[in-house]
Fold these 3 entries.
Entry 1:
Amino acid sequence: MRSDLRRLSGLTLSLILAGGLALAQGSAPTPQDLEALNYYVSNGDSRAADAELRRLRAQFPDWDVPSDLTTLGQQRSPAAEIDRIYRQIAAGDLTEARQAMDETSRNFPGWTPPPEMERLLVTAEAQAAFDAAASAGNAGAAIEIARRTPAILRCDRVNNAWRLAELQAAAGQKAAALQSYRGVIASCSGLSEVTATLEKAEAVASDAELVELFRLANAQLPGSGPALKALETRLRAGRGDTAPEASAPAAAATGGAKRTPGRTAVAEADLPAAGRPRTAGVARSGGGAGLSAVRAAAQRGDWRSCTGLTSGATSADMLYERAWCVYNLDRPLEALAAFEPAASGRLGAQVARDARFGKTLALLALKMTEEAARLAAATDLTIQQRREVEAIILDQRGVRAYQLKEYRRAIAFLTAYEDLTGGLRRDLAIMRGYAYLNLGKRTEAKRIFTELNNQLATPETRAGLNASR
């Protein structure tokens, strides 16, 4: 085989030289550029090799073609090594990945680790060190690791910031813990991240500090006022504060159904306990005293007891009950995972439908509007469930369009929401008024603000009126 390759190399080289190419030392293709030529040579494909050589000649006119093309195999790209390094990083074999990276650099002098590979490995190494420090309760070491590698405190790794704050609180550094929580609230834009952080911060914050944190959260998430107000009311009530309960605006289609913080729950007609679709009469697997206690807690709306009773659950029945309970505790990511067994059909078609409805609500709670829309479209929801989901989707799309300054689309979504539900929440009505105003339609904007101001005069309606004159 090697003699055939040498003959092929000689033939190809003679063709190049016959073409009058002046070969000289100079810029040359990299190993990656030579991969195709290596392949053709190793497979004895002279026609393809000739074509590839012509392409390389045009791209690298000063390249000194070796007399024996089989030697190009020694300049191969470290593609296999690169793939192995990425697999090792993904598997958490970080020492092996670092060693493989160093060996590859030595074996391929022209190769250097790409910035993305280096970043992934450095971040993974920092995460492993942080986990070790946190498990050991070493707040100082954890802080130092985070200082050196701030990427581990990004919002997509918000658990690290929470663990750091918990370490600080355990060490008696309440002010530092509060500052860590404050940093998350000021930096992250996800409602679920911010609300979970507020719940955690409540344990170390004074009344005044809690008010300040909610003020910061409202500034960070100006479109989430009702959800944040509901959460603040719940947390303050847990402290014995008898402040009036937050009012969560209800669309006409929901008939005044109870809403969990930041969520639109199922219509009252479908609720044995707020936020949970009725599943009475549906065939279920399993059962027993444990499941009865869980269902009783859920019926009472005692989400924390329900969640405690289902900790570590593995059965589809228990996980389904847990899914609704953690959903009502504003833990949509957990709810998504817990709904999955029932959504796959393990408890029958009706429960599968309700579980997929629950997953849709959890996705919407995470502001994953389009993913929720796709799931809803693929599910045979009840009429009420579909109205509920479509209302939230139109709400979120309208707000998103307004934020993107796509005012015509915002108006269209909000008007569709009004047609579906028979009404428009006050905050959305004000938004629609400003959308018309931004389009230069002052008459329509003034009509909206006048109507809202006549219903209830507020600084917002008066500002809208002044702007539309």
Entry 2:
Amino acid sequence: MLKRIRLLLAAVLTALSTVVALAAPSAAADSPVPPSSAGQRWALKVAGYYVTVSAGANGDTKLRANPTATTPQTPEQFTLHTDWVTGAGFGSKVSFRSEATGNYVTTEDDASASLLRTRATTTGAWERFTLKPLSGGAFGLLASNGKYVAAELGTYPDKGLLRARTAPPASPDDLGSWERFTLEKVGGHGSTSPAPAPTGQAPVARDVVSWNVCANNNESCSLDAAPPATVATNVSNALHQAMGTRRPDAIFFQEICEKAAKPLELALESWAGPMDVRFMPTDYTIAGTSIQAQKDCDNTSDGVSRGSFGIALAVPDSNTWYQGTVLPSPSAKEQRPMLCAVMPAEGSAYCNAHFSSGPYFVDGEQRGDDTDPDNPYRPRQAQAMRTTVDTLTEAGYTTYYGGDLNTTQNDVGHLSALYPDHQECGQPTPSSPHTGAPTDGNNKIDYIFGPQGPTYTCRVVDGTLSDHRMINLTTS
């Protein structure tokens, strides 16, 4: 019933005008933590106690070590984030976003006794912490005031309170138990159990779209620094125009911000029927550790957080299982994501990924993530995707997969793991050359694969919003 009400609301709003079409649903983008995100959740512990976000006066929140918390419930859960730091880039610092409030942990000033509170809606210097590795797998949390975070576990009146008040010792390992924190994973990237068995057989006719919508920080794209509601409206409208009266069975999105996922779901439902849009972040490994944190999107032009940067997958609302994977990626670079979902009732599965960028040159300077010709990562990413696809196929699903695989036809050998027993929508037949219309400038780097057998049609459509064109596979 709730879904039908949301669908009706979205349809009415869309009919009013493009400007106001998503005014009401945009509140979903401001909800504490978008429920659609497959980002890893974490619990923070100190001296054996879980750290809790507790409600305070006037809706304020404090962090404290909680001796009564025996398992990490919502008040004890956080997502980890990293944003751009001038001169150091992503991955140099980590920020904590509370699952309970949706706000980032901030260090108060000296007048507030350097308390840690979850009151920040965006990240800046006061929301950034340096993870200092200690013996035994622990960390010291070095705050922006140059002091380590400590839990007041002695006679301090506000027992268990977290404050950034310990001066750096001669060696970080000289920190006491009340300054030694550990991070504990809570759950996984979406479902932690194997996919359920299919209960139906997949139809031969499928309609699948993949589109890198360039909705983060590329000034050449129209969605640069755009609010989530604007992204949702414009992307949905462009897809609707491209699809006409056809309803997509799945849509793969790349380069999209977390808080656009739910508004986009509502916008798509106004013409495509009940949909479920899930999000998977792109990670960075925090310097000096093996801990991975979500790369944050740039804020909107008026300074509002858009959440994490990553990919999204839109599938019919009958989806009951989804799972994200962090693909093998070059160190100190973006840790690339893959996101899969299954529809047991129709026997179909879909996997969307954004592979590492290959080498390219700007003003004679080589850039990109996967630039070592002797040790490329894209073949490993393709193999990781294929392993997941084979698992779903063996479970009885007909699987369609692809995305922005950042590989031109000249380097298509990097994707060789994806082709056996399958067909790419740019191939008229399985044995045809690996060719297709360009999707990014003069290059084809976006792909959709499916099973051999059906007749494939592959369209490339310019949605005008992005530096990529959308690619559309249909089978019959």
Entry 3:
Amino acid sequence: MVYELVKNFWLDIEAHNPQANSLRISFEEGRAWLSRFTHGSISTKHRTLFIVRGLYLDIASWATDDAYWAQWAAPSFLTREDTSGATKHKRRNQARIHQRIRDLSPILPKLLTSAAQELKDAQALLAAGTAVDQGEEFEHQGITYRRIELRRRTINAPRGSGRVWVIGGPYERRFDLTQLEDNCFWSWALINTLSETGVRIEELVEITTHAFSIYRLPETGEALPLLQIVPSKTDRERILLISPELAHVFALVKRRITTADGRVPPAVRYDEAERVYSPPLPHLFQLHTGSERRTMSPAWVRITIKDAISRAGLKDENGNDYKFTPHDFRRLFATSALSAGLPIHILAKLMGHQNISTTQGYAAIHDEETLRNFRSFLDRRRSLRPTDDYLEPTDAEISEFHEHFKKRKVELGSCGRAYGTRCVHEHACIRCPMLRPDPTQRPRLEELVEALECRKVEAEERGWHGELEGIEISLNAAREKLTQMGRPVSLGMPEVFKS
């Protein structure tokens, strides 16, 4: 607020009236500033006008109780009409943001898939380059590369020691494959973490290994991994449930930053707002900066996401790269959760919002029917709860939340449906993409595949084309489940080094 007052208001006043030494400026000078400001290129004009008018009115109000402020009190040259239209402008801005989220929603799965494939390709290329000696050629996916033999500055300190540099293929000049793999990994980790949690960017860079804990359901004893989000913008601590996908991301991140002795090294975080350094803590998202370790800065996170989108080749209708900001992932998370049926007052807790209306503004609901149901649900909820306490979930709601985890157990594994949603597959779990198969049920799944193949042969022989289509869908889904069960997932367990 001080920055806007000085930059947008007072610097312009001093530039056109160097003798100004107080807020008591003439009405003509004030209106001249208003004319220059409204014809400028600043998009947040209404916000600045509110701040300037509020400055004058606040000082006049304070002067009635404290004589100290009387020397600074001055009549405001801005009227109520000057700040009119702010609500209309806010609604237009809200509609623009919602449309932006609707446009980005179908792009997010493509970005996640591209980041995962990009990391896989970079790791394969790095492994192929590491397997040969310096100066030798190697082939990867039909392209020939040559590993560069690096010159040594001194006998004891070789330049680029431990890194793989190549030339060939798309790289006309020497290229660092180690750095490429590292960039792809952090792009993948950051995008997945923001997508799965919806945390703010300042909360992301503050995650430490101390934030992980295990909660056991009181009745079943099932262990649920939890992530503690430390207070940031609203000074409100909150707890998030870690999904299996997010647990996999955190495990790989932890394994990457773990030192040879099996511990996560402490890193220093620089707070750009307070301009202070934090004490060393085992931050999860940390990098080497010279000879020390520091956490990733918000600017570095934004650049990494932008580079990932550029490498993915995701273009809009004008041929420009899509723009994903860290806060876009937060809005997409809220929209997806509400569309899946999560009650808004529980989502407000997960998002760290103090007011339900703030959470409501984050939801870019696509379907009109979903919006109507959401509105009616919110009205019913508010009518049943005290107006000053409707953000706190009741014991019945918490119990219902726990019941959800009981009911997600199915024969072949566990169901990953969102809380409060019904099964739309009529319990045909083998076809459902939300089924997380249990490895112990592999023999049962193999029996189902064998039975489906027999039914497919019979349907082809008898010409049952209608049934054949359904069998094909079930068979392909069952085979995909078997592939998922055979796919290794790293848990990030540190290796035991023997001396």
